[in-house]
Amino acid sequence: MYSALPPAPRLLLLEDDPAIARTIRYALEREGMAVTHCLLLADARRQWALGSYDALLLDIGLPDGNGLDWCRELRSAGSIAPVLVLSARGEEMDKVLGLELGADDYLSKPFSPRELLARTRALLRRSRQFQPQTQARLAPALQIDEQGQRALVHAQTLDLTRREYQLLQCLMRSTGRILSRDFLLEQVWGLDSESADRTVDTHIKTLRAKLREQLPGQELITTHRGLGYSLSLPE
Questions:
Q1: Element (H, E) at 200
Q2: For the Response regulatory domain, which residue ranges apply (predicted)?
């Protein structure tokens, strides 16, 4: 489903200093980006699991944890979302550590709003999230309409439950990559959920059946024994 204007890039900002956060939000939102701000790591985890974000702006030293630990967890689970680390630690070894743990870029505090904006734009361009059409929207048969919170097959709405839609959305954001059950469980059900791996398997089964019905002869979701699931886009 196409629109006249591309949707605003959605950014999740994790910053425990309200003053810095206000400056960042102002700089990015005046350029048309949508910013969700969290003060604590736990809140950011919940927002990330519930939302569909194009990039993560991440502070390191937080009252309830270390941002780099979360970055490492996201990468280990298969997330490819771009991550920009914002930190008062400007030493070379801190930057190297951040990049080695999966961050895409590292910006030392204090920084200018102009440099922050330039680096954020560069990350979004490299991930192809800042372009009018994302990889999912270019799919000729299967599409995600994020604003409408629905999936479409040949421009027709696919009848999915909320969890099935969120699973499909998560898989399409990382097309071709294997996503673990734990990662899918966290992204769709959240960290505080009491659901188990079996819940993911059950929903994948029903989602796969619905895709097969609308796209016969095409097996889009692949099970990787002991690893998780991956999705390939239909031709």
A1: helix 197-214
A2: 10-124
